[in-house]
Specification:
570 residues, mainly alpha, Amino acid/polyamine transporter I, 2 domains, two-stranded antiparallel ribbon, 70% helix
């Protein structure tokens, strides 16, 4: 029975099943995506909420050094992109990381991964919808249209702001001296209509944009592609304006100190920076709608990552060069704020308008990805058949698209942005770790290596992984950390959970060093696995606890339904 949890679908079986599905009239999807379209989808997903919202708080935490964190995270994504490309060229199916895990790591791991992709796509889209709402409401305010505060934010933020503001006012502080966020939250909670004593505070614009995007995704990939391409071109033009105009106002002295809060301040922004790169893998979910997925998907992933990393680094340096990083704390629209600081309200208005465009394209790509993963899981029997239903006219996964709209739209009414970002980031990194691990397992069989049109450059990791572990431990000891006292922290102290997480990371690093020597593993997937796992350790024990509860819920569903209904079981 234990082995049945890890039953796998062979590459040949997956491809033959796909050919059988496409041979049935009405089951095939419309193939019209090329390299440019896929690259634009990657750019749309990556350049979203982070560059217009989260980059402000990230810069406040880490200073100009956050630009290097973007580079480091991009390297982790690049290692991962090689692994995604390897799988996409071998198994050109819409299931993305879920399908890749099914071929290499087994069914229960694939299910857990598919369950966590829900965090990456649907839950992260909640964050994008919330950010879109903020910029859209600000844009309307600039045009003289006021939307009541209780219709523009979540209940939890409003309640917290009301409590904190009430306490501040009681202690003698003036309302006008409080931050904008506190004033808006207080007003929203106080002015909201009450239903059975409960204050109705909900983010209505976030719901409406989700409905509109869901409809666009529902009616066809061609319509979605054309809309996305136009939005991405506009987005890139605005970002070039931001960098080009902003460069003239940079004060180099603002880059000193480069990391004002030290390395700990930089690492505090890991969740926000990782969130910035969420979605580059969404390209792989459109494999069944690509003209040549085995050739085009690997190219598009690399192009999108390179373009977006350059843009993130440039924008971060310009932002921190104009506004001292400590002044960016709590700023939800940092790019618009930056131009207001230098007396360019016109450019600030353009940025606010472009943010609406940019976030719309990100929403579009995320809403495309999730239904196609559900569709593939349904074909394997792990979800009900309705999820794999293809619309006879539009050639899209109709029921899955509608369910994704519901799953994004309803939480967007009430969810808190920061908590959604953190949970989504750790789920995404987990998917990246498993994809890198899956390539290592898959390539243990030389026959599998022959079936891929994309080859990861092979570098023997035999000595690199072990030597880097010894070097890392030496540097930690040299930095003044007492390893004995640190190990005692595993059993006592407030940070014992964080110590335990980091200890687990070093154990896995040691195991990978052993297998690198005995199995002569490829270095790039090993680096991808370790770097993504390290980024996960920086998420904090609270996010790990929530993540474990999420995985546990997925395991319960698997044994309650998916294990019995799986086509491999039948």
């Amino acid at each position: 029975m234990w082995s049945s949890f890890f039953r796998k679908k062979s590459i040949d079986k997956i491809i033959s099943d796909q050919l059988e599905i496409e041979s049935i009239e009405g089951n095939s999807m419309d193939r019209n995506l090329g390299v440019r379209d896929l690259t634009f989808m990657g750019v749309a997903a990556i350049i979203g909420a982070s560059i217009f919202s989260a980059i402000g708080q990230a810069s406040a935490n880490g200073g100009p050094a956050v630009s290097m964190l973007f580079v480091f995270t991009a390297m982790a994504c690049m290692f991962t992109a090689f692994c995604y490309a390897r799988f996409a060229a071998t198994v050109p199916i819409s299931g993305s990381a879920y399908t890749y895990a099914y071929t290499s790591l087994g069914e229960i791991v694939a299910w857990i991964l598919g369950w966590n992709l829900l965090l990456e796509y649907a839950i992260s889209n909640v964050a994008v919808a919330i950010s879109w709402s903020k910029y859209f409401v600000d844009l309307l305010e600039g045009l003289g249209v006021h939307v009541p505060e209780f219709m523009t934010m979540d209940y939890l933020s409003a309640k917290r702001a009301f409590t904190e503001t009430s306490s501040a006012l009681a202690s003698g502080e003036k309302f006008e001296a409080l931050s904008v966020n506190l004033r808006e939250g207080f007003t929203a909670y106080q002015s909201a209509p009450t239903i059975f004593g409960w204050h109705f505070v909900a983010n209505i614009p976030a719901l409406l944009i989700t409905v509109a995007i869901t409809y666009l995704v529902y009616i066809g990939i061609k319509e979605s592609k054309n809309t996305n391409n136009i939005l991405v071109i506009l987005k890139l033009l605005v970002i070039m304006i931001v960098v080009g105009v902003g460069a003239f106002y940079v004060q180099v002295e603002n880059w000193t100190p480069f990391a004002p809060n030290g390395i700990s301040g930089v690492l505090k922004s890991v969740a926000a920076v990782c969130f910035a790169y969420i979605g580059f893998d969404s390209i792989s979910t459109t494999a069944e709608e690509c003209k040549n997925p085995q050739r085009d998907i690997p190219k598009a992933m690399m192009y999108a990552l390179i373009i977006c990393t350059v843009l993130y680094v440039l924008v971060t340096l310009v932002l921190t060069g104009i506004v001292p990083s400590e002044n960016l704390a709590g700023i939800e629209d940092p790019l618009a704020f930056m131009f207001m600081q230098v007396g360019l309200p016109g450019v600030a208005g353009i940025v606010a308008a472009s943010a609406v465009i940019a976030l719309t394209s990100a929403l579009l790509v995320y809403q495309l990805g999730q239904p196609r993963i559900w569709m593939t899981m349904s074909r394997d029997g792990l979800l009900p058949k309705a999820f794999s239903r293809i619309h006879p006219k539009y050639r899209t996964p109709s029921f899955s698209t509608i369910m994704t709209g519901v799953l994004v739209g309803v939480p967007a009414l009430f969810a808190n942005l920061e908590e959604v970002i953190n949970l989504s980031s750790i789920g995404t990194l987990f998917a990246f770790v498993l994809v890198c691990g899956g390539v290592l397992v898959l390539d243990l069989d030389p026959e599998n290596q022959k079936k891929s049109k994309f080859k990861i450059p092979y570098v023997n990791s035999s000595y690199y992984v072990g030597l880097s572990l010894i070097l890392a431990l030496g540097m930690i000891s040299y930095s003044g950390v007492n390893l004995g006292e640190w190990l005692e922290g595993l059993y006592s102290g407030e940070t014992k959970a964080d110590h335990f997480i980091m200890f687990g990371f070093f154990i896995i690093w040691s195991v990978m060093a052993f297998f690198s020597v005995t199995k002569k593993l490829s270095l790039i997937p090993v680096l991808g696995l370790l770097v993504n796992l390290y980024l996960m350790t920086q998420m904090g024990s609270t996010n790990w606890e929530r993540f474990m509860y999420w995985c546990l819920a997925g395991v319960v569903i698997y044994f309650g339904y998916s294990y019995r209904k799986s086509k491999l079981n039948v």
